Amino acid sequence: MTAIGCGADQNPFPRRELSHAVLHGVELAKEAVRLINLPMKPVTGPVSCTMKEVLLPYDTLPDVPAWRQRMLDQNRKIAMRASYYLRQAEMEKIPHTLPYKVQVWAFGDSLLTINLPGEVVVDYGLRFKEENDPSRTWVNAYTNDVPCYIPSQRVWDEGGYDADESMIVYGHPTRFASGIEEIIARAVAEMVPGGYKKKR
Q1: % of the chain residues with pLDDT over 90
Q2: Domain residue spans in the chain?
Q3: Predicted TM-score (pTM) above 0.70
């Protein structure tokens, strides 16, 4: 099974050439073999699976005149998105939030997996390992759905591709509002069994 962690803002180095992909593939294979030959920890049950849907709010939505202006943009992706959302705005059908399903699996007291949809940035993986026992916590991204990049507050504050421009590629009306990291973190905290949480 291949599972991808919270690495949306991480890139391999070097990259962009087939030979680079082969190099990284060999490194991954060697690391897998190394780990397979180490003593393993058993993963036991019972298994509990929980899921919670939260709503991630968008930032202030453009109005009809703004969409009309964006339809004239030389960037084809921006113009196409504007054309679509202009029709939606005229019917008052643009959503103000993105439904987002957060999932937590606990395998007895041996392994906790936190499963997040989308291209999730590294801060989430670091945060959830800090808030829970890192030796038993495994944070996955790209699970169940890939609606867009999921920026942390740090990445949202920085702006740039992950937080802003990528939403054009994914077809969303605008970037997220500030604060979605806390919405996701609260949902995770509600579902993580107490035995995995670090004592404060």
Answers
A1: 82
A2: 42-61+96-195, 62-95
A3: yes
